[in-house]
Design goal:
Blueprint lengths: L1 H38 L1
Length: about 40
């Protein structure tokens, strides 16, 4: 009974970390595209 309770926060943390990574890369890609379009 204790194993699921202990693994739940880890799974939530993993999902939150993954979403933060995706958001970070989306921002980086958006900035790069904006700079390229501004230069061109």
């Amino acid at each position: 009974m204790t194993a699921p309770a202990q693994s739940a926060p880890l799974q939530l943390g993993g999902v939150a970390g993954l979403s933060m990574e995706i958001a970070k890369w989306l921002v980086i890609i958006f900035i790069v595209l904006a700079v390229i379009s501004f230069i061109l």
